[in-house]
TrEMBL record:
Protein name as annotated: DUF1963 domain-containing protein
Lineage: Bacteria, Bacillati, Actinomycetota, Actinomycetes, Micromonosporales
Source species of the chain: Micromonospora jinlongensis
Amino acid sequence: MTSRNVKILDQVRAEALRRDIPAADVERWLELARPSALLTVMGDGPVVGVVHGPPKLPADAEDPKYPLIASIDCAALPAGVTDLPLPPDGQLLLFGWPEDNGYGEVRYVPAGVAVEEREQYPSSFPPEDEEYSEVYAEMPQHDLRLTVDVSLPYVETIPGPPWSPPLPGDPPFEEMTKVWRTVLRGVPDGMFAYGGYAARLLLGGYGTEYNGFNPAWVGANPSGYSCYDGPVRGGGPPDHGDWVLLAEFHGLRSGGATIHWVIQRADLKERRFDQARVLVYWNP
């Protein structure tokens, strides 16, 4: 763990103890810390991806239905930067649309595969349309730079029975999530730096929230989320497997817009990216 992240967790410990949370509970909470990659447009770390731009896909691949949100160079990610079984090389392509009821998908192009550049704007999202042009203007093409980050559970509660048991790592302590959010807002190179304009993408970790819920839980349990009436790609019967947050994108829409790509760990390991589920939360 980097000295930066040790310092962040020390701040969490100190703030929790200041709030009179028992030390044993604090240490149990800190054991849930997971490595994650924070990709920003204002950092000084190495370039590991790009926001937006035209996708590059194999000649026999179907044209994407949704705009490219970000492409990640897996070979540029240091080993252990997340605890996910990400590919060691190749390009991870995240597609979606940061609007209410948006969809998306994940594609992976292995290293060495011949690719061709596709149209930057899918026909269903024409840039000449004012509705879409406003969104495109808010996510211009830009390099993504890496900060090796650390993550803790972010939401206070999750739905209990009869919907499902909690997924591994869901927070047992409401007060500790409040501590984590307080500390996270003050990290100078963290996801909320520069008023949130610097951080665009998270890889791995717990992420933030989908309307107050753990995004991995909602992706795994679309029918168990009583407040959820939007689409979930890959929806169906609840599946309580080891669902994880693959990536989370923060757009700059009025009120905030977040896209979550979630997947089962086994599918990620086997490169079954078509099994990913996509959530879009927009708070206009």
